[in-house]
Amino acid sequence: MGIHQPDINHAHRCVGKQALTSMNVVATARAQYVYTTDMQLSATDQLIVTLVGRFKHLTTNHIKRLVYPGKDGNPQRKAIDRLLNNKLLARVNQRLPGGARGGSQMYVYQLGTLGRKIFSGRRGHSTVVDYHALAIADVYVELFEADRRGEIKLLNWATEPDCHIDFGGIHLEPDLYIDVVTSRDGETIRHPRWIEVDLGTEHKKQMTEKLTAYKLAYETRNDYPLPIYPTTLYLVTRDERAAELRYWMRYLKDLPATVLEVAKLADVLHILQQ
User: Fold this and answer.
1) Domain of 247?
2) Among 129, 151, 171, which residue terminates a domain?
3) For the chain, how many structural domains are there in total?
4) What is the separation of C-alpha 162 from the centre of its chain, rounded to a whole number of angstroms?
5) Are 143 and 51 found together in one domain?
6) Which of 53, 63, 77, 216 is buried deepest, with most CB atoms within 10 A?
7) DSSP annotation string for 149-187
8) To the nearest 5 percent, what fractions of the chain are helix, strand and coil?
């Protein structure tokens, strides 16, 4: 059975409209950039700035894994330095601590002065690391690498605000939209998902409002502008938080269990491949 990508040009409120795929990411980046007489960016430079603009914050490791997959050493270093010098990127004035084994601290990058002009109105300047943005990037990197290994096919993805949507009188603001195909027992399965990365910072009232919005959206799913209605996956870092969310979901009556799911961040691939 063939897999058909939805007609994203007719999507409402940009669901998938600006999403990048593994096939057109470089071409899309090139089309978005303004060239000046004294600086013309390479496709690699464009890709780095585009990814940082989409995720708000990326670490050195994120950039290496997304832009230079499988390459040894630090091939990203010269490109990052060049983009810093040209004010397309800027470092966040806070470094991530070393890993559990005492590794060196890691830089975090955001758009620089010129980069923010290119992505006008999209991302502001930060003085501290946005750990939520980095966690969203972690999810995408895992999916990107699974696509390269042939474990999944990542058809489309979109970060906020491009993945925000209004339909049926409901406004949804997921952290990430993905459209993934997996294979099981010779059958291809399509998984459009809204991803919510939950770091446990929101209290019951805020979470209940969000969960209710997804329930109401499901009830008006016939108004959804694409052929396949996405389910919502909440990704958490702690088992205690997962239990808490599942408990609050019990108050959403008449909601099928598969519409809202909860899993650990590390289990995102496992959930998609079930």
Assistant:
1) 132-272
2) 129
3) 2
4) 10
5) no
6) 63
7) TTS-EEEEEEETTTT-EEETTEEE--SEEEEEEEEETTE
8) 40, 20, 40
Q: How far apart are the first and last CA of the chain?
A: 19
- Domain check: are 267 and 139 in the same one? yes
Nearest to 191 by CA among 137, 232, 237: 232
- Residues 168-173: what's their mean pLDDT? 94
Q: Which among 25-34, 85-94, 110-119, 206-215 has the top mean pLDDT?
A: 206-215
For tokens 């060049």, the residue is 82
Instruction: Single out the residue in 105, 129, 153 at which a domain terminates.
Output: 129
Which residue in this structure is represented by tokens 């700035």? 49
User: What pLDDT sits at residue 96?
Assistant: 65
In angstroms and rounded to an integer, the radius of gyration of the C-alpha atoms of the chain is 19
Euclidean distance between CA atoms 272 and 194, whole angstroms: 12
- Please report the pLDDT score of residue 12 as a whole number: 39
Angle between helices 76-85 and 43-55 (to 10 degrees): 80
Buried b (16+ CB within 10 A) or exposed e, 88-126: bbbebeeebeeeeeeeeeebbbbbbebbbebbeebbeeb
Torsions phi, psi for 54 (to 5 deg):
-75, -40
Predicted local confidence at residue 35, as pLDDT: 40
| Calpha distance 82→45 (Å, rounded) | 9
